[in-house]
Design goal:
Layout: H1 11-26, H2 32-39, E1 50-52, H3 61-77, E2 82-86, H4 94-106, E3 110-117, H5 119-124, E4 138-146, H6 155-170, E5 175-178, E6 184-186, E7 197-199, E8 204-206, H7 208-218, E9 223-224, E10 238-245, E11 250-257, E12 263-268, E13 274-284, E14 303-308, E15 312-317, E16 321-329
């Protein structure tokens, strides 16, 4: 039937519901809605920070009019809340363009971009965020995943996602948050593929994409270190991210090899002060179409080892692999 706008005479009540929701989440236990939260067993505020308005909407005149009303009301009463705009279901197209136009007009602090594409798209777009205007809205990549042949959660898809995450780390001032979608699916009851974690009544099967997300989460950094790599002439299927994690006192190299051959990569870390022993975590398999599933739930899982690190060292990145190299700072 297409998108329809809520009747204008109903908008004041709808906006009040939005404001009441914020009060329920963040209000004091003595406020009207905060007291209801406390009565439900949570006297402390939830510290809500972000409010998404819209989700993959058509950026129609009706949507724009109502979005502006909600945004104005929230900004007036709760300027501490970040209102997140929507720019449609795709990383391009009419709704994407119109959504960004609206975000620019309202000077939104953040927009929600979505992206479901084949693995090759992610490899072709590793520089996508480099050219974003730093004066515009920040980006929450709220839904995204690589969809391989048959919408399977393959190693090929997971490595494309890992490659894209190196680009996101490099542009952390623009893409401040990202979340894979969807997260959970029960065996025999799925309405969407791929998902990050599959489960039954007795088993849990993390996909290879899950391990990619896990590794990037565990070994994130607070400072991105500009990096160049030397691994031969054709580096179209190689990407790297190097970060410093100050709280842990370590440096982390994330290296993705999306190609069918192992690659000898030379690193020069002579400008860093570090301990000589590194932990290496590898997620790899010779067949990029392999999946973790109920028949073989651990087809591809992270493998950990230790090795020496010198100011200049070579690393042979396996074919179809994500490698994490962690070494302590001194």
């Amino acid at each position: 039937m297409g998108q329809k706008g809520l009747a204008m005479e109903e908008m004041p009540a709808y906006i009040q519901d939005v404001l009441d929701l914020i009060e329920y989440a963040n209000g004091s236990a003595t406020s009207e809605w905060g007291s209801r939260r406390a009565a439900a067993g949570h006297p402390a505020p939830f510290n809500l920070k972000y409010l998404g308005v819209g989700n993959e909407d058509q950026i129609s005149p009706e949507f724009i009019e109502r979005f502006k009303m909600i945004n104005a009301a929230v900004r007036a009463k709760h300027p501490e809340i970040v209102v997140i705009g929507t720019v449609g279901p795709n990383p391009d197209g009419k709704d994407y363009d119109q959504g960004w136009k609206l975000a620019d007009e309202l000077r939104l602090r953040m927009v929600d971009e979505h992206c479901y594409k084949d693995p090759q798209w992610f490899w072709r777009n590793l520089q996508r965020w480099d050219g974003y205007d730093r004066q515009k809205s920040q980006v929450y990549l709220g839904e995204w995943a690589a969809h391989d042949n048959g919408r399977l959660s393959t190693l090929r898809a997971a490595l494309a996602e890992a490659a894209y995450l190196t680009s996101i780390e490099r542009n952390g001032d623009v893409v401040t948050m990202a979340s894979y979608a969807p997260l959970l699916a029960k065996r025999g009851h799925t309405h969407w593929t791929p998902n990050l974690i599959y489960f039954s009544n007795t088993e849990v099967v993390p996909t290879i994409s899950y391990y990619v997300q896990q590794l990037f989460s565990l070994y994130s950094g607070d400072t991105f270190l500009p990096t160049s790599i030397n691994g031969g002439e054709n580096l179209s299927d190689i990407t790297v991210s190097v970060v410093r994690q100050s709280s842990k006192g370590e440096f982390v190299i994330k290296l993705v090899n999306g190609g069918a051959a192992a690659r000898d990569i030379k690193f020069d870390v002579s400008s860093l002060q570090f301990a000589p022993i590194a932990q290496t975590i590898v997620l790899a398999a010779p067949d990029p179409s392999v999946c973790n599933d109920f028949a073989n739930p651990k087809a591809v899982v992270p493998q950990t080892s230790t090795s020496a690190v010198t100011p200049e060292f070579n690393y042979l990145a396996p074919a179809y692999s994500l490698t994490i190299i962690r070494f302590s700072s001194r």
